[in-house]
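The instructor's notes for this session suggest beginning with a concrete chain rather than abstract definitions. Hand out the sequence below and ask the class to guess, before any prediction is shown, which regions might be ordered.
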Amino acid sequence: MSKVLSIWFSVSSILLLAASAIAISHYAWLALLLAVLAIFNIGWGFIIKAKHRKSSIKS
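After discussion, reveal the predicted structure:
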């Protein structure tokens, strides 16, 4: 995975989790939604990383 893509996934996950932490005191449903989105974002990053690694091994 390229460095730019790695930084994108890390920064976007941190921002989603920070927004979730802020939203806890205001709206529980929004905090839960943001936390789920952050988990999916982290998972998507691992999926992209595995696909890039798999394609680089084959070639």
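Then share the key points. The mean pLDDT is 92. The two ends are 15 Å apart (CA to CA).
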